[in-house]
Write a structure and sequence with these properties.
Structural class: mainly alpha
CATH topology: Hydantoin permease
Number of helices: 24
Helix content: over 70%
Order of helices and strands: HHHHHHHHHHHHHHHHHHHHHHHH
CATH superfamily: Hydantoin permease
Number of domains: 1
């Protein structure tokens, strides 16, 4: 046993950040997982996702239903991928080695990491926008400075980078207050909307802009796909968190209780306030920072924007650095530490140009959320099929950290998984190139998941490697 332990620790596939969580570290209970989802769900992007549905033409009932249904759907792969993390204490990139191979797992890990980098950049842009609006409130002449938003984005990006370099413990104090802060901002906006629009009646009376059922469905399908795609990222890397769970029951209950309810409740604020902007201004304003800039009370604007800055910093580090830092570390465990992976995330966040991703609701929901869902849906399908169907929840954990072991496949790559991924993503993306099958892209996550799941099962069914680890 000592010799095996020595082999694993000297393996190029091993470092302390990727090692299975020890019993001493596995103390997360129901409350911790519920608090995790409350903290991650109550954020500006939840508000913007919900608000974008109103701007796209839905009424408040249609938008609420879309958000709730989408989050109930994504809860299923979330809980399925949570199981191996809680059972074996391994993070997402290590779990991916079972299906993609000890080196092929980098394909899945990098896909997930790049999406997280994009989200990191989006949150940094929102924080920079808040700083710019804050400066414009204190010094109105700032509005006339053309490079103001870009400078403020860079300043907030540097703050994030400094936290990554110093260590995530620097924002641990903020973790407990980020959700209450944003809840307070949401209630402030809700109170303003109620008073300015003349009560809930006018807000709830804003009609749907869809005259017929086919028109509504044409928007609903990609909107629902985007809602699922919103958390498709974390549905993959959720083992990064459930590896610290005390047991399966507590992590499942905590997630099932908190994810759909918190997302729907905070989305309700975004939906109602955006409906009010239609009544007040004649157009839907989906960006809360831009909406706050229209307030007449400088004190309210300053307090709200500072609150958004603090909460955005905390959410960005917690939700968009932990996963890609592990994923980049998995590329070269001996050379890339968690901190180095976090620095790579920061720079990639700029390279993905978040200002373009947030240009309008169509780019955000149909382009960004729908686009990456075409890749993450297939990865989820392959991993879930591999763990539950092929291996029947049995993994040889030591071999996940060794070359020439069970998960070596062909020089470290399971090409069946790579082909299944290509088939799933290619089928979903075909909807972009061929107008007659646009529905494939509109349902990119679902289509990619189903095609890759079936293709992977068909190719792995007779694999001797799969059968030996399923015993």
């Amino acid at each position: 046993m000592t010799e095996l332990r020595s082999r694993i620790e000297s393996s190029p596939l091993y470092n302390e950040d990727l090692a299975p969580a020890s019993a001493e570290r596995r103390h997360w209970g129901t409350y911790n997982f519920a608090a995790l989802w409350i903290s991650m769900s109550v954020n500006i992007l939840t508000y913007m996702l919900a608000a974008s549905l109103i701007q796209g033409g839905m009424n408040w009932r249609q938008a609420i239903a879309t958000i709730f249904i989408g989050n109930v759907i994504v809860l299923a792969p979330m809980l399925l991928n949570s199981h191996p993390g809680a059972k074996y204490g391994i993070p997402f990139p290590v779990l991916a080695r079972a299906s993609f191979g000890v080196l092929g797992a980098n394909i899945a890990a990098v896909l997930r990491a790049l999406v997280a980098c994009g989200w990191f950049g989006i949150q940094a842009w929102i924080g920079g926008e808040a700083i710019s609006t804050l400066l414009a409130t204190l010094a109105p002449g700032w509005k006339n400075f053309a490079y103001g938003p870009a400078i403020c984005f860079f300043v907030f990006w540097l703050i994030n980078l400094a936290v990554v370099l110093k260590g995530i413990e620097y924002v641990r104090v903020l973790q407990g207050i980020s959700a209450p802060i944003l809840l307070g901002v949401g209630l402030l906006l809700l109170g303003w909307a109620y008073r300015s629009a003349g009560g809930f009646g006018p807000m709830f009376s804003v009609p749907s802009r869809f005259a017929t059922l086919p028109e509504f469905l044409k928007f609903l399908v990609p909107a629902l796909n985007g809602t699922v795609g919103f958390w498709a990222t974390v549905s993959l890397n959720i083992p990064d968190f459930t590896r610290f769970a005390r047991n399966q029951r507590e992590q499942m209950i905590g997630q099932a209780l908190a994810l759909p309810t918190t997302m729907t409740l905070y989305a309700f604020v975004g939906i109602v306030v955006t409906s009010a902007t239609v009544v007040i201004y004649g157009t839907a304003i989906w960006d809360p920072v831009q909406l706050l800039s229209r307030f007449h009370s400088p004190v309210a604007v300053v307090i709200s924007l500072i609150a958004i800055l603090l909460a955005t910093l905390n959410v960005n580090i917690g939700a968009n650095v932990v996963s890609p830092a592990n994923d980049f570390s998995n590329l070269w465990p001996r050379g890339i530490s968690f901190r180095t992976g976090g620095v790579i995330t920061c720079f990639m966040g700029i390279a993905l140009m978040p200002w373009k991703l947030l240009a309008n609701y169509s780019t955000f929901v149909l382009g960004w959320l729908g686009g990456y869902a075409a890749f993450l849906g297939p990865v989820a399908g392959i991993m879930i099929c591999d763990y539950f169907v092929i291996r029947r929840r049995v993994l040889l954990v030591n071999d996940l950290y060794l070359r020439n072991g069970t998960y070596e496949y062909s020089r470290g790559f399971n090409w069946r998984a790579v082909i299944a991924l290509a088939l799933g993503a290619g089928t979903a993306l075909a909807g972009l190139a061929i107008p007659s099958v646009r529905v494939l892209y509109d349902y990119s996550w679902f289509v990619g998941f189903a095609v890759s799941f079936i293709a992977y099962y068909a190719m792995m069914r007779g694999s001797r490697t799969a059968l030996t680890t399923a015993i």
